[in-house]
From TrEMBL, chain A:
Main location: membrane
PANTHER family: ABC TRANSPORTER ATP-BINDING PROTEIN, HIGH-AFFINITY BRANCHED-CHAIN AMINO ACID TRANSPORT SYSTEM PERMEASE
GO MF annotation list: branched-chain amino acid transmembrane transporter activity
The UniProt record lists the keyword Transmembrane: yes
A Pfam family matched in the record: BPD_transp_2
Lineage: Bacteria, Pseudomonadati, Pseudomonadota, Betaproteobacteria, Burkholderiales
InterPro entries: ABC_transp_permease, LivM-like
Gene Ontology cellular-component terms listed: plasma membrane
Protein's UniProt name: Branched-chain amino acid ABC transporter permease
Subcellular location: Cell membrane
Superkingdom field: Bacteria
Transmembrane segments: 31-48, 60-79, 110-131, 189-207, 238-262, 274-305, 311-338, 350-377, 397-416
Keyword entries, A-Z: Cell membrane, Membrane, Transmembrane, Transmembrane helix
Membrane topology: Multi-pass membrane protein
Organism: Ramlibacter henchirensis
TrEMBL record, chain B:
Family matches, as Pfam families: BPD_transp_2
Domain of life: Bacteria
Keyword vocabulary terms for this entry: Amino-acid transport, Cell membrane, Membrane, Transmembrane, Transmembrane helix, Transport
Gene Ontology CC entries for this record: plasma membrane
Main subcellular location of this protein, as a coarse class: membrane
Keyword Nucleus belongs to the record: no
Protein name, as recorded: Branched-chain amino acid ABC transporter permease
Membrane topology reported for the UniProt record: Multi-pass membrane protein
Keyword Cell membrane: yes
Length: 445, 315
């Protein structure tokens, strides 16, 4: 079930210039988007007031910074790193050690601790990046993995610094308290995280517009030509690596403040893998993609893992399908539809989308029923073969339940295929129209 | 001398197992340009398949059946997933194998449980091969070495002395030409991927009972085989062979050495106490740093010889 258009002509990096409002020196559209982002960051905890949602929102802010910084490597530099957790994790560790020193009288305000984390991440990137950025592409991926393993293995060798199994804990309510802000209540910390998230996002976006950021894209797309023009591709990658690690470190520092405990798990390979996975799912080709990915990451780790035991399997499957059918991630799907909307044809598609969604849901329902039954049989054999799945009683030993689930799934697949064919046809037509329209407008201009 | 000989033998046998693992990875990488992140997962699958098959029909059939099953899974994965992603470039190719490793891990835990499987060395190979300085060298280690060496010879002969090897090698650099000559290039790639997976599966059959068969086994060797491939030189089979032996021997020796820098300095009269700066670092014993030695080796290699031991290209 390929998502049509996902594999067609390369998607332009920005929204089609179908007449956007620009008054020099202000780019109105950009100001609106960034104001909206600020408003969302500000309003979110006022709408979701429970303590669970506040912790989740805080984690989302942290995740947004680290995923964006990861995308600086993956999306902008074409560097697939398997060791990004090293830099956010080392940021966490140095931040929590600094926090403990603040408790002993070091005069640094708590709100600046994340910067310490950022500097720590940067320092480690200066060290390790010098080795890892010697290579690009696939060898780079393997080497970052090796360096990640190196740090992870040493974290068990130095319990004084990494705190061994128990980790290092601290207390963020310490040091001077300007305006009575203690960072004791979660909401105060949330706003600190929100400010950092906004500033870091803005800085990282600004980075994409700098000559260095542009050069990084060139290094990703055509390293030979960059070399030929006289730039050192390795130096560009190295500098970008350091900058990305700085932001990762900030996120690590914020995480240290948020959880008040850092265990060696934060530098582990699975953590790096999670950053990679969700940055990609969100969409590495667009700047805002990782933000979507980060939100999904927190939702998956906090909510999905509570909901079902099989969440890692679902995650792996979703990832597999995304790589196969929508390698641009969720962001690219959004942008493709925005393009259709910009040409005023999105309205025709909504029936198809509804049908696709409904049939996909049926497939998912049948498949999930079977997956849940298998997990139930394996993990809770003592509870007997009965389980509740979305309120429906299933019997994992009964033929009826299996037959029912399989039937639901197969019906879903059949219906999905029918709607998909219709949709592909429709989508192709609209894309053709858009191509023609673009050419026509070009001819007029 | 006793320590030296025994460690050398153990190191070589561990190194040969590493080679069995990394040879498949190197093959797939050099033939298809795909870095298979799920390679260690295929190794794990091989071990579990062998565990189940050996319970049903015995060890010797399992030695053949398990790698074939893994090869089948690898070939199907190539045909239905990897091939679709090929047009998007190298990064999605790598990512999809990364996703596969997640799914295999989850599946293995689902089918065989999260604790280790009771997969044992077969009775016939259980005894000692010979006794050296009073230490018995297990027959199974000898068997492991034998299979690895046979495998090396077989791959080398297949690639350099047969028509199939010629087609495979040409298919990477000149796919259109090979296609024009009437060979089915996608099928060649499918076979190569399946073959590489089978090698990993074979390593799993052999290594699973020599070490331990558990869901974490893919993670333990996963990054070491990448180190082997980088240190040996990307895509060089001989390089992988040398590098795996080197890493196997170094690591095995390190595990047995109990010295530390503190001990050495104390012996020459520069005492280090718990007050000295960096005390935890000086105090570390070589046996304690054994797990990170491969990675240190990787880093040093990259600093001094970025293309690897026998590598031919820099990229």
């Amino acid at each position: 079930m390929p998502v049509p258009g996902a594999t067609s002509a390369p998607i332009p990096a920005s929204a089609p210039a179908a007449g956007y409002y620009e008054f020099k020196p202000f780019n109105i559209g950009r100001w609106i988007v960034w104001s909206l982002f600020a408003v969302v960051l500000f309003v979110a905890p006022l709408l979701f007031t429970s303590s669970l949602s506040q912790t989740m929102l805080s984690q989302m802010g942290i995740a947004i910074i680290v995923c964006l910084s990861y995308n600086m490597l993956l999306g902008q530099g074409g560097m697939l790193s398997f060791g990004h957790a090293v830099y956010s994790g080392m940021g966490s560790f140095l931040a929590i050690h600094t926090l403990n020193m603040v408790g002993k009288g070091l005069p640094i305000p708590v709100s600046l601790i994340p910067i310490v984390g950022g500097l720590a991440g940067m320092l480690f990137a200066v060290l390790f990046g010098w080795v890892t950025t010697k290579k690009a592409a696939t060898p780079f991926a393997m080497i970052t993995l090796g360096v990640g393993e190196l740090v992870w293995a040493s974290s068990l060798m130095f319990p004084e610094f990494f705190g061994g199994e128990g980790g290092i804990s601290s207390n963020r309510v310490t040091g001077p308290k300007p305006l009575g802000i203690t960072f004791g209540p979660q909401i105060q910390l949330y706003y600190l995280i929100a400010v950092y998230t906004f500033v870091c996002t803005a800085l990282m976006f600004a980075f994409t517009r700098t000559p260095l950021g542009r050069m990084l894209n060139a290094v990703r797309d055509n390293p030979e030509r960059v070399e030929f023009v006289g730039y050192d591709t390795r130096k560009v990658r190295y500098i970008a690596f350091i900058i990305a690690a700085f932001f990762a470190g900030i996120s690590g520092g914020l995480a240290a403040l948020n959880f008040e405990i850092v265990t060696s798990e934060v530098v582990s390979g699975p953590r790096s893998g999670a950053y990679l996975l969700f940055t990609f799912l969100g969409g590495a080709t667009f700047f805002f993609g990782p933000i979507i990915g980060a939100v999904l990451m927190v939702l998956a780790f906090v909510l999905l893992s509570e909901l079902t035991k099989a969440w890692l399997l679902y995650l792996g499957l979703v990832f597999l399908f995304m790589v196969m059918y929508a390698p641009g991630g969720i962001a690219s799907l959004v942008m493709m539809n925005l393009r259709v909307a910009a040409f005023g044809r999105l309205r025709e598609l909504w029936v198809s989308y509804l049908a696709l969604g409904a049939t996909a849901l049926i497939v998912l329902l049948g498949a999930a029923g079977m997956i849940e039954m298998v997990y139930h049989l394996k993990l809770n054999p003592a509870l007997g073969p009965e389980l509740k799945f979305l309120g429906a009683p299933l019997n994992a030993h009964g033929v009826n339940s299996w037959f029912g689930c399989a039937f639901v799934m197969l019906t879903g697949i059949g219906l999905f295929e029918l709607t998909r064919r219709h949709f592909v046809h429709q989508w192709g037509e609209i894309q053709e129209y858009i191509e023609k329209e673009v050419k026509r407008r070009e001819a007029l201009a | 001398m006793e320590f030296f000989t025994i460690s050398l033998l153990n190191g070589i046998s561990y190194g040969l197992l590493l080679f069995m693992l990394s040879s498949g990875l190197t093959l797939i990488f050099s033939m298809m340009g795909v870095l298979n992140f799920a390679h260690a997962s295929f190794y794990m699958l091989g071990a579990y398949f062998a565990f189940t098959t050996s319970q049903l029909v015995g060890y010797w059939p399992a030695l053949v059946v398990a790698p074939l099953l893994v090869a089948l899974i690898g070939a199907l994965f190539e045909k239905y997933c990897l091939r679709r992603v090929h047009k998007f470039g190298h990064v999605p190719e790598l990512l999809i194998t990364f996703g596969l490793s997640f799914i295999i891990l989850e599946m293995v835990q689902l089918v065989w449980g999260t604790s280790s499987a009771d997969y044992r060395v077969p009775q016939a190979l259980g005894g000692p091969l010979f006794t050296l300085y009073g230490t018995q060298f297990p027959m199974y280690r000898g068997f492991m070495m034998l299979v690895a060496v046979l495998m090396l010879i077989a791959i080398w002969l297949l690639l350099t002395r047969t028509r199939i090897g010629l087609v495979i090698q040409a298919a990477l650099t000149h796919p259109e030409t090979v296609e024009a000559l009437g060979h089915n290039v996608p099928r060649v790639f499918m076979l190569v991927f399946g073959g590489g997976a089978a090698l990993a599966g074979l390593a799993g059959v052999i290594g699973g009972n020599a070490f331990v068969t558990e869901p974490g086994m893919a993670a333990t060797v996963g990054s070491v085989i990448f180190v082997v491939v980088v240190v040996g030189g990307m895509g060089s089979l001989t390089g992988a062979f040398v590098a795996s032996l080197l890493i196997g021997v170094i690591q095995t020796f390190a595990v047995g050495v109990d010295a530390s820098i503190m001990g050495a300095l104390n012996a020459v009269g520069a005492p280090i106490t718990s007050d000295t700066f960096g005390y935890p670092l000086w105090r570390l014993k070589i046996s304690q740093i054994a797990p990170i030695l491969p990675y240190l080796f990787l880093v040093l290699m990259l600093i001094f010889r970025p293309k690897g031991l026998l590598g031919t290209r820099e990229g």
